[in-house]
Amino acid sequence: MRDYGKIHTSFWSSETLAGLDTDGRLLAVYLLTSPHTNASGAFRLPEAYACEDLGWSTERLLNSFETLSSANFAKRCAKTKWVWVCKFHEWNKPDNPNIRKAIVKSIEAIPDSVSFKQEIVSAWRVSETVSKPLGNTPSPSPSPSPSQELPALPLDDGSEFATDGLIAELRSAYPKIDVKAELAKMRVWLLANPANRKTRRGVGRFITSWLSRATPTAADAPRPPKRKELS
Hints:
By secondary structure, the protein is mainly α. It has two domains: 10-129, Arc Repressor Mutant, subunit A, CATH 1.10.10; 153-212, no CATH class. The chain has ten helices and five strands. It has helices at 15-18, 22-33, 47-54, 58-70, 88-91, 97-108, 117-124, 167-173, 179-192, 203-213; strands at residues 42-44, 74-77, 82-85, 153-154, 160-161. The strands form two sheets. A three-stranded antiparallel sheet has the order 1-3-2. Strands 4-5 form a two-stranded antiparallel sheet. Strand 4 and strand 5 form a beta hairpin. The longest helix has 14 residues, at 179-192. It is elongated. It starts with 14 loop residues before the first helix and ends in an 18-residue tail after the last helix.
């Protein structure tokens, strides 16, 4: 679950909003800020989730989705229950290349059966180099070698937490632990347990708790005492 969602102040003066009724406006705000929304603006939203959050009937919800679809604000795939806020990529540009990488991964994971997947791919320019920030012309930089790449940890909002900046400090704090290997284990565990993913604010505690319980590497593990020879 995300800690917060952003709405630009121009949202309230936009032509799109001006043409929406009250329910359409409320649903638009909900899609931008709901706990189900992620960094790509494309996510699965069963009717029951939204109806419970908004206190609406299914009919009222679907009518409002029709309103947003007509205004080209959002699209909904009735078959898969996926929703896409069409201009989310313009209003919520990634702050850094690592967040963009996480967004690209989440888009690639969208089922092909989602009717508007290719539109999402085109909007986010997924086919481009994932390290290229949106809206900027990057200067060329060498690709990191495999030994330099560190596992990023998936977060509850669909983005990922880059561990590059922590590795030196973690290795200093846990000298007997293979920190890189443990980070890889954390990533696999979080991918397999999405309900247990952490917020960006809480992931630090998760990392230190995990490393505190980790087994020392073989070279640093205590050796068994030598067997006393019989005289």
